[in-house]
Amino acid sequence: MGSFTKWLGAGLGFTFGGPIGAAIGFAIGSFVDGFEADVFKQEQIDYNRERTTGNSDEYSNTQSGDFEMSLLVLASIVIKSDGKIDQRELNFVRSQFLGMYGKERANTAFKLFKGIVKKDVSARQVCIQIREHMSHASRLQLLHFLFGIAKADEFVSKSEVDEIKKIAGYLYINQNDYESIKAMFYDESGNAYKILEIDKSASNDDVKSAYRKMVKKYHPDKLRDLGPEHLQGAKEKFQSIQDAYQKIKNERDF
Prior knowledge:
By secondary structure, the protein is mainly α. The protein folds into 2 domains: 1-173, no CATH class; 175-254, Helix Hairpins (Orthogonal Bundle), CATH 1.10.287. It is 70% helix and 0% strand. It has helices at 2-10, 18-31, 37-53, 64-80, 87-101, 103-116, 123-133, 136-151, 158-170, 175-183, 191-195, 204-218, 231-252. The radius of gyration is 19 Å and the shape is elongated. Mean pLDDT is 81; it is low at 53-60.
């Protein structure tokens, strides 16, 4: 058990405590025989003491494990929002973990995820913890992942959209950013304009200006601190921006 919490703490910063840390502790207890919550709480106390007495700069950025645990908790909330847990959604989460982390780490993450799903977690409290420690670019990436989960069963229910929108609000992601990321997962008329956060009435110069702005906002380099395992999702977002711009260019022939 000690080696497991040591592995867990090695990749974590702010998520080792607070409501996310509580969810992690609950999840570990759901699949580790003989686990006692007090043991994990002591690990958290010791870890936080090290943070207080150590070099604070070491914890100034979100670590790869922080993003991972934030994903696990928010994904569990979205998956349960329509009143059922669809196997296709679980498969999507697992496949994403495999792609990002490799088999060994993905198996551990998914085992944690299945434990977290069993716990009722406050979306608001979790999001408050995330937004206090995570950059805007990282929060946008979380939202992108959540829409991917919701779409995994080929149907995004109203309850799932409502939950993701609520999470976006708690994360201080504005309406334009929310609609832009949402449009990346739908093939509907006008979505290319939504992705670039402009109206169809925008001039060609406005389209070009919006494209440059979105390229800057969603450039994968903004997520390099999260580690290479999380860059694929950033590249998918970036490609959506490229595709939307190309579609508008083709329509307008400029």
